[in-house]
Structure formats: structure tokens, C-alpha cells
Write a structure and sequence with these properties.
Layout (H helix, E strand, L loop, with lengths): L3 E5 L23 H11 L4 E6 L4 H7 L9 E6 L21 H6 L9 E5 L2 E2 L2 H12 L5 E7 L10 E8 L5 E13 L2 E5 L5 E4 L4 E9 L3 H16 L9 H10 L5 E5 L5 E2 L5 H15 L9
Parallel strand pairs: 1-2, 1-4, 2-3, 6-12
Antiparallel strand pairs: 4-11, 5-13, 6-11, 7-8, 7-11, 8-9, 9-10
Length: 298
């Protein structure tokens, strides 16, 4: 069975100032999603499922989704605040989506097979998606996460949030620790804690960029954990239900194993609008090196 690629593209992108998901970075109008899907096709994923907001459906289909529908099976699902357990009332002042864990959960009816989940505004690299596809086809049953070297994932224009991973001797995930203000510090790297204390990092830490491989069993876990989240934090208008929080809980309870697939690929992303020229230049370098054609889709 070929795995599915689940693309999380419902985020608002407040720091970026626009819809990053459909902003072109390639020489012929390609978006970061285009490059991820090109790599997914080479890795022989069998289906695409896009998680988007209903209000961007028309623009998203025209700018992105429509170009793939003749190449691979494509489905769309919508992340909406009202998709919550019966009896829960959404705070009237809330507009922010519920987060990545909820984005995956809303795709339950569209996904029946092992699947990879990616952010729509990140470039992960061919090696990373291939490794994840191979793992999902192996029928071992474990979940997986692609782990990046921290220094390969930073922005030149501000701090970033990263999940710093703690791994066991056999290469499985033990815990993801969220660090929200990571930035370059001369030749090194540092993060600033919520208390204001500054802590050095080596830059060699393994971090999560939300490139996950799951079995369909994840949906049952997500339903249970989302219910707990809403009971505890559902009335907070800015709270988010993050997938690393769910994974941490599953690993701690020994309900699932998560294999860490380490990669030397460099991450490309547009956290800030000023990142875009650098990302476009990096894409051109990859094209010159022969990793991608100048025009992805003929």
C-alpha cells in the first residue's frame, strides 16, 4: 500500500503577513508546496490530502491543487473551529485555528492508510520525504519523525520555534521540548526562555519540523487528546493543540514508538517575509545542481 501525503495548509501566517502557502518562490511561479509534492511523487506517495480553510479553497485550488489532480489522487478537507466534540462551545472571540493536532484529526475520513504529515509552508528536501515514504511502506507499524540538524533550520531575520528532540540509544523519540525563541548568536545558537534567561545551544541538536509519519491509529489518539485539551484549555482564545504534545504523551505512556529518521537535508521556509529572497536563491542553487528541473510541471 502506498502512503498518503497530508499537507497542512490552513495556517494564517501572521508573522509572514499573508498566505505563505500560495506565495511563489520558484523561477516559474512554483510554491514550497510544489517542491514538496514533486518530491512526494518521486518517493511514490499514492494520494494527496490538503487541509485548508474553506475561505481560501478557490484561490488554493487555482494556485496549487488543480495542477496535481491529473497526476495523483487529490482530496481536500477543511479545518474549522466548529469541528469539535458535541456539546463544546467555541469561545465567541476565537478566530485562530486549533493547531496542527486538530488539522490532522479533521483528515480522518480522507486517510485510511499510513501517511506523512507536512507543513505547507516548509521545504523538507528529497532525502527526507523518501526516507519517510520508505519507513511507511516497511509495515513495521512504528510512527516516525524526520529529525533535522538545528543549525540547518534557522532564519537570518528573527527567532524561530523548534522542537528539540531527546532520543534513545536505539534511535527512537523520547521527548520533544518546544523552544520558541531560537536564533543565531555570533557563530553559535541560543534560545531565550519565557523567564528571559538566555541559554546556549550547540546547533547540532536534532529538531522536529513537523515532518511526521503516522499509522491510522493516530486518529483515535487525537480524538482522545483533543477532548482533554478542550476541557482544560478550550476557553483560552489563543491555545493550540499541537501534534508534538500528543506524540510526547503517547511516547511517555508507551502507547506508540516513534522512530527518528535523521537527515542532513537543509530546511527552507518563509517564517518572515524577508526570508523569501533567500529561499528563492536556495531553490535556484538546487536547480543549478540538478536536484530539480527549472520548471517542475510541464
Amino acid at each position: 500500500m502506498q502512503p498518503t501525503l497530508l499537507v497542512l495548509a490552513a495556517g494564517i501566517g501572521s508573522r509572514y503577513g499573508g498566505l505563505k502557502q500560495i506565495d511563489p518562490v520558484g523561477p516559474n511561479g512554483e510554491t514550497l508546496i510544489d517542491y514538496s509534492i514533486y518530491d512526494a511523487l518521486r518517493a511514490q506517495f499514492g494520494k494527496l490530502v490538503f487541509v485548508i480553510r474553506r475561505e481560501i479553497e478557490k484561490d488554493f485550488r487555482e494556485a496549487i491543487g488543480g495542477r496535481f489532480e491529473e497526476r495523483i489522487a487529490v482530496e481536500y478537507v477543511f479545518q474549522e473551529l466548529g469541528l469539535a466534540p458535541e456539546g463544546f462551545r467555541v469561545p465567541p472571540q476565537r478566530t485562530k485555528p486549533w493547531g496542527t493536532g486538530h488539522a490532522i484529526l479533521v483528515a480522518e475520513k480522507a486517510v485510511r492508510e499510513p501517511f506523512a504529515a507536512i507543513n505547507g509552508d516548509d521545504f523538507y528536501g528529497r532525502q527526507s520525504l523518501q526516507a519517510l515514504a520508505d519507513h511507511l511502506r516497511s509495515e513495521r507499524g512504528d510512527y516516525a519523525m524526520v529529525g533535522y540538524v538545528l543549525r540547518n533550520t534557522l532564519s537570518e531575520f528573527g527567532s524561530v520555534a523548534r522542537g528539540v528532540c531527546e532520543c534513545s540509544a536505539d534511535g527512537c523519540l523520547e521527548r520533544v521540548v518546544e523552544r520558541t525563541k531560537i536564533e543565531r548568536d555570533g557563530m553559535g545558537v541560543r534560545y531565550t526562555a519565557d523567564t528571559g534567561a538566555v541559554h546556549p545551544l550547540t546547533g547540532n541538536e536534532i529538531v522536529s519540523l513537523n515532518l511526521w509519519g503516522f499509522q491510522p491509529s493516530i486518529f483515535e489518539h487525537l480524538r482522545e487528546e483533543f477532548g482533554k485539551f478542550l476541557r482544560e484549555r478550550g476557553q483560552d482564545e489563543k491555545s493550540e493543540f499541537f501534534i508534538p504534545t500528543v506524540v510526547n504523551a503517547l511516547v511517555a505512556a508507551r502507547k506508540e514508538r516513534v522512530k527518528v529518521l535523521r537527515t542532513t537535508d537543509s530546511w527552507l521556509g518563509v517564517t518572515y517575509r524577508a526570508d523569501k529572497p533567500r529561499v528563492a536563491a536556495s531553490i535556484r542553487q538546487l536547480i543549478t545542481r540538478g536536484d530539480y528541473p527549472a520548471r517542475l510541471w510541464q
